[in-house]
Amino acid sequence: MSAVRWSGMLLGGLLAACASGSLPPAAGEKRDVRTGAPESGLPWRLHLPDTATGEHPLRLLVWMHPSGGSANALVEPLAPAFAERGWALLVVTDKDFSGWRGQEANRLMLGTLPDVARLPGVDARQPVLLGFSAGAQMALELWAARPGAFGGLVLLAGAPRLSQGSEQLPPAGEARARVPLLAVVGAGDGSAPLWREASRTWPAAGLSLEVLEVLGRGHEWLLGDEAALARVLEWLQARAAGWWRCEGPSRGPRNSQFTVRSEGCLGATS
Q1: CB-based contacts of 225: which residues, under 8 Å, 6+ apart?
Q2: What is the per-residue pLDDT across 45-81, written as a single tens digit (0 to 9) for each?
Q3: 229, part of any domain
Q4: How confident is the model at residue 251 (pLDDT cuts 50, 70, 90)?
Q5: CATH number, position 18
């Protein structure tokens, strides 16, 4: 994976500077869908209901696709549920979907997000990254490189391994500790034992991690599981309201579908 470089730019300030534009829906677009193709970014599609306004914007939830395809058909049906909980879903519509490269991540962060931030009704400051498999790994790399740029990560079928850390060597740091992480993994996934270890070591290092282990599932799309989806939506709603919380250390089965392992995850965020 090539290096993620953001040319020293402060993403939050860049997005704030771009937030004053006003772009109506293009001809032929659905009113709750916006699209764009910035020259310096990746082409995008945003699910933004008409009820979102400059005074009452939705926060930005950025889809990080897995390798082998966009998987937009999996996540976009959830856009109305995300919107109900305060989030506008952003997906990339044209790139090499075989995986993620550092250059592509740079185009997403420095080209696509500022373009989206021009829309009234969306608050693109400190977006949450929703990553699936390889997309979860890139989300972790972005967070490790510039933690202050993000409001949280939802990691689906990922692994706690990145260029700056692992399940045994937490990617610690004060800025990273301020970003809540929600990892959802199938109990039969090869990464499940790694997340069990990380659920102990990462919070011990000050990181804010909650791990949901979905029973009876492997390395697959996990938001088809009703209970797992409910927890992700609950987490997003709390995050949109300015709060995030976990359930306490290794409290065993939350219900018949998954186990919660988490520590040190109660706090207010800005």
Answers
A1: 214, 217, 257, 258
A2: 999 999 999 999 999 999 999 999 999 999 999 999 9
A3: yes
A4: very low
A5: 3.40.50.1820
Domain for residue 5, yes or no?
no
Question: pTM of this prediction?
Answer: 0.83
**Tally of domains in the chain:** 1
Domain presence at residue 166: yes
Question: For residue 231, what are the domain limits?
Answer: 11-268
Q: pLDDT digits over 185-195, tens only?
A: 999 999 999 99
Query: Is residue 2 one of the residues assigned to a domain?
Result: no
The β-bridge partners of 64 are: 131
